[in-house]
Design brief:
mainly alpha, 6 helices, 3-stranded antiparallel beta sheet
Length: 130
Amino acid sequence: MRKSITDEQSPAFQFYAQDWITDPNRMKLSLDEQGAYILLFCHCWRSFKILNDLEILSKMCGCRLQKIEKIFPKIKHLFTEIKEDGIKYLICNQAEEERKEQVKNRKRRSIAGKLGAKIRWKEETLSESK
């Protein structure tokens, strides 16, 4: 379900243990809810979006349908539902924030690299001409 093969997709996201263990919102979740959330986050990271279908979500989380029916209402607020061609999908809010941050950092590093190269090659050209 990736957007397209040309979209740049990072294979990983930053996971800060301190942020995770001290997050008051995470502390409100049961262990099962935390596990389901992080698994669905990972699926959203890889695929950008996941089908909003409890049977599929239960398989993604490796649990029975009855279990995800209890869990998902408590973590649903961490996702945004979208519709494309009449099909309902979920997007993980935190994954999208991380994705935006990575794009911003990638652009910043690209600009810095280009500037550094420009300065370096200009200096080498000047020293060669002396």
